[in-house]
User: What shape does this take?
Amino acid sequence: MARFREPRAPGFWPLAAVFGLFVLFLYGPMLTIFALSFQGPEGGLTFPMRGVSLHWYRQLAEGLGVVDIGAAFKRSLALGVTVMVLTVGLSLLAALAFRKRLRGGNALFYVTVASLIMPSIVVSLGIGLQFRLIDTALRSVFEHWEMTEYLESFNTSLGLFTSALGAHLTWTLPFGLLIMFAVFNRFNPAYEEAARDLGATPWQTFRHVVLPLIAPSAIGVGMFGFTLSWDEIARTSQAIGDVNTLPLELQGLTTTVTTPAIYALGTLTTVVSFAVMGLAMAATWALRQRQKGAAR
Assistant: This one.
């Protein structure tokens, strides 16, 4: 028996065409960069392609002038992982705290998410200025106590895991908080009550009941935290100190490197982002399969 198929609505094809153009506009430049990064040694920055090879990836591995791509990659990776862990942990703890009525909780929430509406460069400048004031205060302390060794070796408190970490958390934490708040607003407390009735301690209830249920969302928060940190430029620019992350190096190279090696670097950074998203989706799928198996 043939299955009856409903006719398409009159506006389906125009909307489908608009959506197709949107997807092409969104991913077309990315696919173009991917393709041009595999050009031959005589290739340029535009089409048509001149051969197909891994030449520019080999050149990238050898280094691009005075820029240490490997060191910048490691710095961005370390910073992204740290931001990911802190975003998940702090968002989860804050969401658990906000399940109860807190005095001043509304004000605290609005202050936390306010950085989303602030221009990123303004946040970066503010953090950079704050740490320069800290530098001045530290130098004054060293001079007052005649700590000559510290004064001579001290350069700045701006750094990867100080100012840059704080700048990235002002971007990732609000997203993590909003996600975790939404998760716990839909969380059924009956599961926790049942665990307590069976004699579970608060820690056992959280570990064996709450955490497995919210784990997919926590993984999503971690994915957001890493990818937002990995690609961040504006909030890092004035708050990084005397080192650069990979996106900052990539931005600087756009004015000096005129070969497809810049496309190879862009491709690698994009692949890392997709790899993190793939791992997050795989972990979420594995958790759901485990929950289904436990429910049988």
